[in-house]
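Structure tokens please, single chain.
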Amino acid sequence: KWKITKRMKKHYTVLQDYADDVGDEDDNEGDAPPAITCDVCDVDCFAESYFLEDGEEDICPKCYEKDGKYAGAEHQKEGVKWIEPKPKKKKGPPKKKQKIAKEQ
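Here you go.
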């Protein structure tokens, strides 16, 4: 008989095939991840980009920093609006407790 002594951890991964011929047109199987390219320099900027709604333009971070004319663009990561997390306030060192002398 088997005797269980501790919990088992299971590790696995899911691999997806991005072949164009796999899957029907109705489902998303076999589709490559969405591509976002800079409309100025044609560089792939899916990981991080700036989106301008008025012309529906995607701008890479390098082009965004070069020209100041893209003010008001929405910062995106992987095609989703990105909001920088607020930095946590640093706490000072813990306060030392005062020792109370025992009176005898």
